[in-house]
Amino acid sequence: MSAARSAVAQVRAGLPLLVDGFSAWRDAARELLAHDVPPQDVTWGSPHTGGDLLTSAPPPAAAGDNAGTPPPAPDPSRQQPLRPAPHIPRAFMDMLQSAACCRVPDRWAFLYRVIWRWQQGEHDVQSPADEDGARLNAMVKAVRREEHDMHAFIRFRERPEQAGPPRFVAWYEPRHDVLPQVARHFVARMGKVSWMIATPEASVLWDGRTLHDAGPLAKGPEDLEDSGEALWLTYYRSVFNPARLNADIMHQHIASDRWKNLPEAKIVPQMVKDASRGARKVGQYEAVGQRKGTTIPIAPADAQPERQQPSKLDECRRCELWEFATQAVPGEGPKKAKIMFVGEQPGDQEDLAGQPFVGPAGKLLDSVCEQAGVDRDTIYVTNAVKHFKWEPRGKRRLHKTPVQREIEACHYWLDKELASVKPTVIVALGATALKSVLRTANVTLKHYLGKPMRHEGHWVVTTYHPSYVLRVPSEDAKREAFKVMVDSLKLAHELLERPPEAGEQGDLGV
Ligand code: URA
Fold first, then answer.
1. Which of 167, 197, 200, 338 has the smallest number of Cβ neighbours within 10 A?
2. What is the distance between the alpha carbons of residues 428 and 389, in angstroms, rounded to a whole number?
3. What is the pTM for the complete model shown?
């Protein structure tokens, strides 16, 4: 977009708005919204000038936009906005920013339509049940997937030391504009060593202290052969286990256009062939068996290379629920809270907001805390399962109870939360939470309700899930269930002062 002319003035002059990057689009969109300019009046485009790859600063004026013309007189419409700037919640803005990385030709026009509808009060526009919302969510998902793939499939090649920086170079062909965020990921991961990531559209160079925009690289990875690659291939051969090979899954996980830039692509076909010819029977790649030395008996499970676990919740693929959720919802609360609430899974509103218990169940939880005289802000609140599981019902997304496999997959994250927060008391809200906390499917809520127990160094108090209290039809039963929740929280609070007694050490026997 022209730096000299306001977005509104350009639209009124019948000119297209050329934006290069999210921040330029956001500034233009804010101005247009303030002047009530509807989406159908705006033509958006991209100038392809290289853009704000690293700085997110507004791009320079596009050639031909109004180059060479004197700056116009101040635009009066700019001085008198008709509406205050809309308040866009952070989570929604993050969604728009992610979607903006998706390479679809109409991305700026589409995002403006979405934000326009939001300003008109149509907050469903971010929901997957809405047509635009579904597209928005699909764009966000495609971008996240691309970030994940780029983290997983990028291969750095080492350059000779005497060649000077960068020490490592990688070539990648991303499907979406994810290079800036992926570069930040590697800045955090690779410390002070210098590296460069080149793509057909743009490149970044990290000199150990600063990230530089290195422009597009005309050439591909042909010159990047190195000794590091030989080392990588040796490592890859040694961890390749033909007994566990499932070639179909391997190809499903790595799209065909990724293979050409993976160094191991050269050796995989031969290894797959060997596996089908009988290497499967010996259980390890033949080179391993040929090595001299002492044989150490080892259980097959221990011989497997350890699978890398996701480092970020949002990258979690331990079960399939991520595919249908807007985002993973992490726990929230003081880092060293003494009480931890464990719910079941985020609901519709939590899925959109990215925070646990912000919808109707969360409001009920607020009342429970208030009645029990415990400040909710002192409690760490999380869920057994971190992605929203749902099924469509008309335009609505109806909650679906997670199955044991999903609960177990997500235990990985609850364990991390427990290890870091170290709560004295865990309050399990409902049966799913109880199954997760006790790590068994063989428990019933009724059996444990109101009975505190010791489990793995914590007190565990079991109570109803707030959604049960909301759902229960009779007013009397509702009042009773609410009281059980209040009493449970009071009990949790009392237990903070109670030392574990000898008789209460055994947990599942209660
Ligand atoms: N129900 C839950 O179990 N957790 C939430 O975060 C919201 C509703």
1. 200
2. 19
3. 0.47
